[in-house]
Amino acid sequence: MNYPGRIRVVQYGLGPIGLECIRALFRKPAEAIELVGAIDNDPDKFGRTVGELAGVSCDEVVSDEAKSTLHNLQPDVVLHTTGSSLEQVQSQLLQCILAGADVVSSCEELSHLTEQNFLVGYELDQAAINFGVTLFGTGVNPGYAMDVLALTATGVCTRVNSVKVVRRVDAGKRRLPLQKKVGAGLSCEDFKALADKMEIGHAGLQESCLMVMKGLGIEEGYVRQTVKPVIATATVETSDLTIQRGQVAGIHQVAVAHKYGREVVSLELYMYVGADNPTDLIMVDGDPPIRMEIEGGIHGDTATVGALINAIPLVSASEAGLISALDMPIPRCFLP
Amino acid sequence: MNYPGRIRVVQYGLGPIGLECIRALFRKPAEAIELVGAIDNDPDKFGRTVGELAGVSCDEVVSDEAKSTLHNLQPDVVLHTTGSSLEQVQSQLLQCILAGADVVSSCEELSHLTEQNFLVGYELDQAAINFGVTLFGTGVNPGYAMDVLALTATGVCTRVNSVKVVRRVDAGKRRLPLQKKVGAGLSCEDFKALADKMEIGHAGLQESCLMVMKGLGIEEGYVRQTVKPVIATATVETSDLTIQRGQVAGIHQVAVAHKYGREVVSLELYMYVGADNPTDLIMVDGDPPIRMEIEGGIHGDTATVGALINAIPLVSASEAGLISALDMPIPRCFLP
After folding, report:
1. Strand, coil or helix: what is B322?
2. Beta partners for A164?
3. How large is the ipTM?
4. B positions 106-125 inside 8 Å of A (CB)
5. Nearest residue of B to residue A299, measured between CA atoms
6. What would the pLDDT profile of A223-269 be if each residue is shown by its tens digit?
7. Angstrom distance (rounded) from CA B191 to CA A69
C-alpha cells in the first residue's frame, strides 16, 4: 500500500473482464485510484465512452491507438486484459512498458514463464527493467486458486511430501466464452480433434504447477499434463447452451510434476457444465498436514477481477522487471 | 529463494520451539542451510552441545555470550525464540542487528507494531536499516492463521464488508506452557485476577487484527479485545494436568476492529483443554464471498516452527528494516 497519492490507471481491453475491472475500480475511493483512459481495437467499442460501455460515470472516450494514448496519458498502471497467449500480447505489453507504465495483466502465460515462453518473457523482462516498470500476470487461476493458495498452505509446514489441489467449477455458472473454452456442447470426436491440436482446455495449469514447484524451491522439471472430456450423463441447460446426454460437458485437466521419484505437485481441474459440489481444495501431505478448502469454490469471473485490481497497489511498490506471484507480497483486497 | 549459497543460521533460544527449529533445520539439505551456533543463558543448557540437547548430529557448544558469539560466527540469519514481549527481547534483537544478521523472531509483539510498542519498534527499525539487516516477527499466530491467511482469503475480492476469523485449538493437545498460558486448571477467581492485570491470554491477537486492517488499506484504529474463561463442564485430563468441572479449561479471546460504523475485522480465538472440532475458519463477507477452512485446524507448535524456518530464505532476500508479513512474499515451505 506504498503508493504516493492517487494511482492513475488505463484499462487495456474491454471484454467482459475488462469492463468488470472498470466497474470495480469505480467502487474504490476516487482519491486512491482513478481510471484515466481505456483502449480497445474493437470497432464496436472505440470512439464510445467508457461510461456508455461499462455503465459507470465516465466520459473518457475509448481509444484504438494504444501507443499514442499511453504516451499522452502516462498512466501509473495499465490493467491489461486482452488475451491468454504471451506471444500474441507481447507487442501490447511492450507498448505499455515503453510508456513507462507498470502492467497488471490477465494473460495466463505471463503468470509464470514456461520453457516455450522463456524467450518472449526474457525480452519483456529486459524491457521492463530498462524502463523501470513492473510487469505482472495474475488472475484467479493461474495466479491464486491453484498456485498462490497452494503455496500459502505450505507456509507453516516444516516438511512437504506433496501438494494436491482440486478445483471443481460449474462452467454452467460462468460466461459463455468459458463454456466454449472447455468444449461444452461438442461431440467427443470434435473434442478429441481439438485436444490433439492443444486447442482446448484451461490455459495456465502448467504455469501454476511450475510456480508451485519453484516456490517450494524445487528445481523446475517436466510437467505432465492431460485434458480429458467430461461427458454429460443427462441433458443439461445453461442460459446460453443446451448440452445433450453423451456430448461434452467440459474438461478434466490434470498437471503433475514429479521429483524424488514421486508426485510432488498435482493439480486437478474439473470445469464442466453441471459440476456439483464446486470447491477449491488443497491437501498438503506434510508436517503438519494441511487440508484447506474453500466451500463452494471461488467464483472465477469476479475473482479474476479482484486479483487484477488488488495487484495494482502492490505492483506500484514492486521492483522493476517481469515478476511472478512468488515475488509479490501476500494478496489482499485493496481498500475494501 | 534468492539466496547466494548456503545460509548460515544461529539459533537464539533453546526452549521447546527453538530445539524443534534446530531439528527441522537439520532435515533441510545441508548445502542450502547450516546451523553454525546456538545461544541460551539457561545454566542447564549453555556449555552442552547442540547435538545433546536437540538430538541431532552437531558438536557446536551452546553459548551464553550472545554478543561475542554473534560477532565471531557472523551468521546470515538468527532464529530468535526467547519471548513474547518486545521490550524484554529488545536488547537481544539489537545484539543480532549489530552483528549484521537478519533476524526471524517468534516474538509476538514484533509481528506488527501496536501503539504501545511503537517506540521500541522504531528504534529497532532504525538500527536494522543502519546495519542493512532485516528484522521479521512471525509464527503461526500471529503471523499466519489469523492474519496472513485472512488477508490472502480477500486477495480475489473486489469488495470486502468484513472479515471474520475463528480459530479453535484444543489446548490439551499442546505443550504444558500453552495450557498454563490460557489458564487451564485455574479457578474462575484466579483467572479473573490475572485477566484484570492482563496477565492471561494469547499474545498477538491485537497485532493480527491491526495487521489485517492495515493490509486492507484501512487506517489503523482502536481494537477492542476481551478475554473470557471457558469453564470445564466435566473433568478433563491432559498428559500434564487434570482440570476439574467448574475450573477454567482455557480462553475465549476476541479482538474486533470497527470502521465505517461496523465490525470490519473480528478475530475469535478459542484455546482450551478439551475443545472439540478444532478448526481455522475464515469468512469474508465480500464479492465474491469466501469461506475458507482448514479442517481440524493448524497444529500450532509444528506450524510455528514451520513459519519461522520458512521465513529464513525470504528475509535473506528482503529489504533492510523491521518488516511485517505485509511486506513479505507469500509464505511457502522452503525446500520440502
Report:
1. strand
2. A266, A283
3. 0.96
4. none
5. B288
6. 999 999 999 999 998 888 999 999 999 999 999 999 888 899 999 99
7. 67
